[in-house]
Write a structure and sequence with these properties.
Blueprint (H helix, E strand, L loop, with lengths): L6 H8 L3 H9 L6 H13 L6 H7 L5 E7 L9 H14 L3 E7 L1 H5 L14 E5 L4 H8 L5 E4 L10 E4 L1 H14 L5 E4 L6 H16 L9 E2 L20 E4 L2 H13 L9 E3 L5 H5 L6 E3 L2 H17 L7 E4 L2 E3 L14
Parallel strand pairs: 1-2, 1-3, 3-4, 4-5, 5-11, 6-7, 6-8, 8-9
Antiparallel strand pairs: 10-12
Length: 339
């Protein structure tokens, strides 16, 4: 069966954007007559069938993609800014533009739909991070092309690019156990996000496989219901290692341990997740998981552009693996080495 030819195929053949192809085929201004002729000739060569009725319903493509995130995940050192930089660069290389937009907690709670997510203003959206189930329902109810990045829920009809948080947390917990740690605590509010849940479950799986009891005393919250960080309530019986759900939490935990007289890693080991700026700002630098933000961003861009071209395109849930980055916040209880 012959593959259906899409505008993207014409754009790739000529080295131009899909927006330029759309304008050329629809007779709109914005492209030269020479380029219009090239586009029409290439479309004919590829047996592309232009459907003006579909375009009139969907509206003319703008070339703009909205990158949407909740304000509670954005600060000066936000890990999500890494994603935005990759996404923006990737879109620009393909003749599109990224517009970063944040949703306040009030707008999310009151289900205020973002105006940028409408045809004629942007062509699609990449949603960064966790949002409430009700807000996800609101966004997906509009039949606007959307891809979720670093978040998923129980729906199978939405497209999600996620880090393999479960296996990465399982891997780093195994590492700690294999170098002699048997008393390990997890730091992260388990119900806060799907990523933290997965990281907790990876930690639990590792403990169970090694015959280590999973104690509720060793599961510590790091944020409140509003998503903002809170002081960590340390257990009376201190563990030898803390598995933190992110580098920011690990960074704050190390400062808290130092204030209470503990040395990291001489007395207690600490690991993080994300390989963000916090892992290098810390003293000592934090052993962590590096998330492949470039690959995840690339998959998100590819997916949203395909969904814009073909609304029925669907990838489901796609996990991307990470790797341990060994730094200086972990001490082996077997060889007394520091990594």
């Amino acid at each position: 069966m012959q593959k259906e030819v899409k505008m993207q195929d014409i754009a790739d053949r000529l080295g131009i954007s899909v927006v330029a192809v759309s304008k050329a085929l629809s007779g709109k201004s914005g492209v030269s007559e020479a380029m219009r002729a090239k586009v029409c000739r290439t479309a004919e060569e590829l047996n592309y069938v232009y459907n003006p009725r579909r375009k009139s319903v969907q509206g003319e493509l703008t070339g703009n993609i909205c990158v949407l995130a909740s304000t509670r995940f954005i600060d000066a050192d936000s890990f999500y800014l890494k994603y935005y930089k990759h996404i923006s660069s990737l879109l620009q290389s393909r003749g599109r533009y990224a517009f970063f937009h944040t949703i306040s907690s009030s707008d999310e709670e009151n289900l205020i739909y973002p105006e940028l997510l409408t045809p004629g203003r942007t062509d699609g959206a990449i949603i960064l991070g966790q949002m409430s189930k009700a807000y996800i329902e609101l966004i997906t109810s509009k039949n606007f092309p959307v891809v979720f990045l670093d978040f998923y829920d129980d729906r199978k009809d939405i497209d999600c690019i996620i880090s393999d948080s479960f296996y990465a947390s399982y891997d780093i917990t195994n590492y700690l156990i294999n170098i002699g740690h048997r008393k390990l605590a997890f730091v992260g509010s388990v119900k806060a996000t799907s990523s933290i849940q997965d990281r907790y479950l990876g930690y639990v799986k590792s403990l169970m496989e090694h015959g280590i009891h999973v104690s509720s005393n060793y599961v510590l919250d790091d944020r409140g219901d509003d998503g903002l960080m809170v002081p960590i309530r340390l257990p009376v019986d201190m563990p030898t290692a803390f598995v933190c759900n992110c580098d920011g939490t690990a960074y704050e935990l190390i400062k808290q341990l130092n204030r209470e007289g503990y040395r990291v890693p001489q007395d207690i080991s600490v690991t993080g997740f994300d390989n963000s700026m916090y892992s290098d700002m810390s003293e000592p630098k934090i052993t962590t998981i590096e998330v492949n933000t470039e690959q995840m961003s690339s998959l998100a861009v590819d997916t949203i552009l395909k969904k814009i071209e073909n609304p029925s395109y669907n990838i489901g849930r796609m996990p991307v693996g990470g790797r341990i980055i060994y730094k200086n916040s972990v001490r082996s209880l077997i060889s007394d080495s520091i990594r």
